[in-house]
Amino acid sequence: MPLIDAQNIEIRHGATRAVFGVSLSIEAGEIVTIVGPNGSGKSTLLRALIGAIPTSSGTIKRAPNLRVGYVPQKLHVDPTLPMTVRRFLNLPRHVGAKAVRVALTRTGVQELDKKQISALSGGQLQRVLLARAILNDPQVLVLDEATQGLDQPGSADFYRLIEALRDEIGCAVLMVSHELHVVMSATDRVICLNGHICCEGTPAVVTATEAYRELFGTGTGGALALYRHDHDHAHSGDQACTHDHHHEHEAAE
Ligand SMILES: Nc1ncnc2c1ncn2[C@@H]1O[C@H](COP(=O)(O)OP(=O)(O)OP(=O)(O)O)[C@@H](O)[C@H]1O
Fold first, then answer.
1. In terms of DSSP bridges, do strands 16-26 and 57-62 run parallel, antiparallel, or are they unpaired?
2. Smallest Cα–Cα separation from 187: which of 175, 199, 195, 196?
3. Are 47 and 53 in contact (CB under 8 A)?
4. Predicted confidence (pLDDT) per residue in 99-151, tens digit
5. Nearest-CA residue for atom 4 of ligand 1
6. Distance from C-alpha of 69 to C-alpha of 131, rounded to nearest angstrom
């Protein structure tokens, strides 16, 4: 049984239909990356899949007592509020020094445990947030553009860490990223979202498709830049677009 299984879901924010006709499932241990333009419903879909917001139609089934670890885009910390990394990882639930040490070691920042949260660099903070997300030994790790603000080598390191954690913990990973070219090698499956699912598949299959080339350019070696990705047409909930899209893209070769 999949960890999460969504069938034909629609999600509305008031009058805005943010996601429609989406069916997808997340299997144990796989890494799934959702890409798509701004406002295409990526965060909305993630939040619905983990049960944080309701759907307006369709069904989402989650494995019983599913353990989810969530890494937000960023954390706003009041610099006047003193809080060490160790204390932060013990909120809202006290987990103890050993669990904190294990989690920080797994994310490669064990030396930061006594540091103030407000004194961390962007990359260090993301690793601390990741450490917090794995404290409950998650079956699914969910990341919403977790590398925003990191430079490309920093992002690449972070995604390598995610892959290593997946291998170590055995969790599935569901993430949103704008950096498909960076995340590609650490992904089993790519889903391109624009309200509905435009195309999906393994990176190897997706990169070989015409739809993918239209979306992301034709560069080689994974050095593809998702630059601008316009879908200026309406859909009625189909799962694969067979018609032309209008895209502007740039391939960094
Ligand atoms: N809380 C909300 N109330 C009203 N509308 C919302 C809300 N959250 C999102 N929306 C709308 O739903 C649509 C999808 O937004 P969402 O944040 O899911 O997109 P996204 O793909 O994650 O975007 P981005 O890449 O910019 O983060 C957008 O039109 C957005 O304006």
1. unpaired
2. 175
3. yes
4. 999 999 999 999 999 999 989 988 899 999 999 999 999 999 999 988 888 88
5. 13
6. 10
Residue nearest to atom 24 of ligand 1 (CA): 38
Can you give the pTM of this predicted structure?
0.83
- In 63-153 the beta strands, taken as DSSP E runs, fall at 68-71, 140-144
The rounded Å distance from CA 19 to ligand 1 centre is 10
How many angstroms separate the alpha carbon of residue 45 from the centre of ligand 1?
10
* The length of the chain, given as a count of residues: 253
Longest dimension (CA), the chain: 56
Amino acid, single-letter form, for residue 66:
L
Q: What is the spatial distance between Cα 251 and Cα 253, in angstroms, rounded to a whole number?
A: 6
The closest-lying atom of ligand 1 relative to the alpha carbon of residue 73 is 27
Letter for the amino acid at 107? T
CA distance 181 to 152: 10
Using 50, 70 and 90 to split pLDDT, how confident is the model at 214? low
Distance CA 156, CA 154 (A): 6
Task: From 152, 192, 195, 146, select the one nearest 41 (Cα to Cα).
Answer: 195
What number is the ipTM of this complex? Answer: 0.97
